[in-house]
């Protein structure tokens, strides 16, 4: 099984990229290089299919916050520091603060939709070029944009909560309704903020002027908000039938008269079904991510600085297997020069490429060009297990807004 793989933010400033091949500095040059990347014969013994690895930059065009600015510096919002798993587990106060901010952030995430970049990944899949997607994003946009292509959600997903005692999952939308009932003043504030458009505006300055700050992973900051009065529900399963604790401790799950988790409890704490910073990725997801790399012959890295080790190591694994790597990202990528070591200086993209452009304009143009010239790959989607790590969304619910993110 190997060592646990913990999600840790990497905060160093990343150097600006070297564009490869040099002709890929223009839009048409970048398209030509990507065309060459997909058209080049598979390297000895490797399959022709491409695995795609994506990050937060892909969802920026959907209105979601990224962890980094385009110059590669960490934290667009300098004062933002994500909560760590151990803090969340240890502190009732930290959980109140987390859920209060997440309560406000959910409405913006709930309304957000996949953008042209996600849909273009779907187009590349339909051209037979993509075997599977590994994403670090927790917004479920890949599964929503291209449900027919397997997506492994490396860092989990916000569409569910999960109990830290019994590990049952619950839909986030119903949880949101419970938070509203337990926190009527916050619910009123949220309605007001939504009515004023403060949560809709794309302009960070305007958001700040309205007293709101948006952060990654559905976090919203309201300066001087009374987080300490916020209430959150207990796990309904643990409340009715508490599981035994491993060390034989008596399990206590208590709620107040409205159903809010009481600090007299020692279990039944719900967390978002994301891998929080400082939390380990499950062995199953880690293994499936490795299988997705090992089942492909190329790696397309989209809109991520590979700042988390869990993602970086997958690119490293691809390089070690001799897979050509294409990186499309605004700003630097962690240790990227090593991914292009040994490339023929005359190559045009087939051995690897580095482009610094936004995915939502480049990828649709690429898919359109490949379609126009009748390009077809041979890849059929990777056979992957039907499990929680691979997004298997309920298509019958897809008509309802965001419903299909909740199954
Ligand atoms: Zn539980």
UniProtKB/TrEMBL annotation:
The active site is at residue 155. Keywords: Metal-binding, NAD, Transferase, Zinc. One of its GO terms (molecular function) is metal ion binding. Zn(2+) binds at residues 163, 166, 235, 238. InterPro entries: DHS-like_NAD/FAD-binding_dom, Sirtuin, Sirtuin_cat_small_dom_sf, Ssirtuin_cat_dom. Residues 24-376 form the Deacetylase sirtuin-type domain. PROSITE patterns: SIRTUIN (PS50305). It holds the Pfam family SIR2. Belongs to the sirtuin family. Class I subfamily. PANTHER family: DEACETYLASE SIRTUIN-TYPE DOMAIN-CONTAINING PROTEIN, NAD-DEPENDENT HISTONE DEACETYLASE HST4. This is SIR2 family histone deacetylase-like protein. It comes from Lasiosphaeria miniovina. The lineage of its organism: Eukaryota, Fungi, Dikarya, Ascomycota, Pezizomycotina.
């Amino acid at each position: 099984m190997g060592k646990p793989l913990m999600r840790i933010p990497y905060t160093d400033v990343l150097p600006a990229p070297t564009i490869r091949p040099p002709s890929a500095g223009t839009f048409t040059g970048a398209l030509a290089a990507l065309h060459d990347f997909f058209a080049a014969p598979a390297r000895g013994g490797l399959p022709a299919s491409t695995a795609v690895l994506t990050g937060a930059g892909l969802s920026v065009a959907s209105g979601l916050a990224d962890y980094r600015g385009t110059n590669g510096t960490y934290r667009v919002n300098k004062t933002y520091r994500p909560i760590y798993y151990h803090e969340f587990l240890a502190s009732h106060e930290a959980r109140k603060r987390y859920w209060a901010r997440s309560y406000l952030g959910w409405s913006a995430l709930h309304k957000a939709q996949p953008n042209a970049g996600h849909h273009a990944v779907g187009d590349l899949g339909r051209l037979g070029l993509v075997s599977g997607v590994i994403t670090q994003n927790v917004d479920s946009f890949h599964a929503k944009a291209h449900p027919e292509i397997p997506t492994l959600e490396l860092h989990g997903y916000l569409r569910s909560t999960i109990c830290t005692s019994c590990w049952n999952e619950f839909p986030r939308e119903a949880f949101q309704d419970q938070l509203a009932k337990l926190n009527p003043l916050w619910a009123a504030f949220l309605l007001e903020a939504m009515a004023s458009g403060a949560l809709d505006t794309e302009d960070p300055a305007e958001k700040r002027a309205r007293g709101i700050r948006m952060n990654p992973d559905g976090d919203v900051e309201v300066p001087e908000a009374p987080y300490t009065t916020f209430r959150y529900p207990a796990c309904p399963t643990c409340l009715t039938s508490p599981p035994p604790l491993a060390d034989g401790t008596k399990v206590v799950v208590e709620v107040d008269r409205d159903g809010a988790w009481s600090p007299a409890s020692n279990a039944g704490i719900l967390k978002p079904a994301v891998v929080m910073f400082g939390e380990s990725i499950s062995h199953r997801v880690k293994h499936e991510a490795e299988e997705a790399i090992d089942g492909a012959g190329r790696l397309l890295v989209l809109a991520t600085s590979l700042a988390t080790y869990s993602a970086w190591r997958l690119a490293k694994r691809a390089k070690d297997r001799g897979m050509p790597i294409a990186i499309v990202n605004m700003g630097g990528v962690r240790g990227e020069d090593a991914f292009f070591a040994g490339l023929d200086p005359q190559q045009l993209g087939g051995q690897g490429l580095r482009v610094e452009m936004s995915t939502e304009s480049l990828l649709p143009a690429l898919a359109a060009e490949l379609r126009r010239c009748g390009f077809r790959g041979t890849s059929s989607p990777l056979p992957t297990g039907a499990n929680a790590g691979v997004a298997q969304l309920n298509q019958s619910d897809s008509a309802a807004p965001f419903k299909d993110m909740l199954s």
